[in-house]
Every structure is written in structure tokens, then in C-alpha cells.
Write a structure and sequence with these properties.
Layout (H helix, E strand, L loop, with lengths): L1 E7 L2 E6 L4 H8 L8 E5 L4 H13 L4 E6 L7 H12 L4 E5 L5 H7 L5 E6 L16 H8 L2 E7 L1
Amino acid sequence: MSLMISGSPSGSFPVRAAVTREYASDLAAGNILSGKTILVTGAAGFIGSNLCKKLLNDAGDAHIIGIDSMNDYYNPALKEERLKMLSSNERFVFVKGNIADRALIDRLFAPDDVSEIWITFPDPQMKKVNKRLTSTRFLDNYRHILRDGGLIH
């Protein structure tokens, strides 16, 4: 199931609300993400690191770029251990940084570089409507790096 988020100054773009069974099946078959570049936010956390592991195992020859601020919300040593495991795969690259840092994103990616973006951390600003991860202002920061037809999960 895909949703169209609209109302932003630059239009609308697809955001996947949930991973469908069909998508999961295609992913497991290795035929949906092969050859693509995937950005995973919160890559050192429990969910993000397990998603990266799953993508590295099931997404053919896709390249996974993990980004994480490496905050001390919980044990940073645990995060480092997860990254060590992921970094043993040559298709994984880790970047320490904040996904909300537009300048960092612009330095890392050229326009249309990324096929899919997976946001795997909780929204830190739930009460600030214009800064929420699901706000079009936040999502617009990543439109330029997302390939035509790309998805944000």
C-alpha cells in the first residue's frame, strides 16, 4: 500500500505506509531492490540494524547506506557492535550524522541517488507539527535525492 503525501510546495511523492505481503515476498526473492541504493535511518538501533541485515541478506546486490546520530539514548557500545557486524559486508556504508541535517544529506547524495529511504526511528518531535518526520516539510528535504518512482518507508 502506498500513500501520496501532498500539500507541500513542490507537490507529492510516494510514501509506503506499511510493507505489504507482496513487497515482502518480492524482497525475499531478491528481485525488487537488486542494484538499487537504499538509505536506512537509525541504522545502529535495534530496528534499523536488523533491517539493514535483512536487506543485505535479501536485496540482491543493493547498496545499503546507514545513517545514525549515535546518540546515547541507550548504550552506544551496543550500537557500535551492531555497526561492526554490518560493516563486514562491502555493500554497507555507515555515516554518522543526523538525518534532519539537510547540508549533510546534500554532501552525501547527488540528486536521484537513492531508490528507497527507510525511516526506522521514532519521531523525536511529535508535538512540533512542522518538524515531524511525517510532515511534508521534513520529507521535502529528501525529495531531491530520491529517484523517480522511489519510496519512503
